[in-house]
Design brief:
By secondary structure, this protein is α/β, with parallel strands linked by helices. 37% of the residues lie in helices and 26% in strands. Bound molecules: adenosine-5'-diphosphate and magnesium ion.
Amino acid sequence: MKAVEVSELTKVIKERIIVDRISFSVEEGEVFGLLGANGSGKTTTFNMLSGLLAPSSGSVTILGKTIKEMQRSKSDIGFVTQEDSFYETLTVRQNLEFFASMRGIGREETNKRIKKFLSQMRLTEKADVLSSKLSGGMKRRLNMACAIIHEPQVIFLDEPTVGLDPLVRKEIWAVIEELQTDKKTIIITSHYMEEVEKLCNRVAIMFAGRIVASGTSKELKEKFKLKQMEDVFAYFAKPVVE
Ligand SMILES: Nc1ncnc2c1ncn2[C@@H]1O[C@H](COP(=O)(O)OP(=O)(O)O)[C@@H](O)[C@H]1O
Ligand SMILES: [Mg+2]
């Protein structure tokens, strides 16, 4: 079974086509990169895939379920948003407890998972620190832990490393690689090509709401006779003029 199947997905907002008949599929256990400059429609796509935003047309299935079926049991997906979704006024542990309780996870299981996620996200030492006091990279990792505390099979990561310095980005990659060895299906948006080449099995490049190229990094470089993914990205992903 495919983990994610998207067919002719479209979003029109106030008569403007934001996402334009995109189709792609992602295998179970694959890391799939959705690439594109700011404004190309990546977050809008994620919002539709995770059931936050109704598509204007087209279809999505996640692990064989439609968005409607999925909305009844959102347990299969985790959406790590571009903006932090946790509470700055709570400690790291309190945030994890809060998100676990929202998912209806019992006390004993919550304690187990908190231990596991603190370790996986390299936050054990920071468990009782106020979330507002964390560094940028730690905040991204806490945001991830809160969004996947229910251990979903399919994880959407929207720009997980944007604005972080290269060293901190590498810490996040290590966490993503661990999730991958855990057999999770991961869809990631990014515009750091180094990250994409390292993490993604396949990619799709979006431009102005459309998918303009897709394949492995190697296939794309060969197809367009370019040496670097940076060049492939630059070729397609021109900034969208508003
Ligand atoms: N609710 C909305 N109303 C109007 N325009 C929107 C809305 N959501 C997104 N857009 C526009 O759609 C385009 C794509 O946005 P987005 O999906 O956030 O792109 P990306 O995540 O690739 O940067 C942008 O031009 C944005 O301004
Ligand atoms: Mg975005």
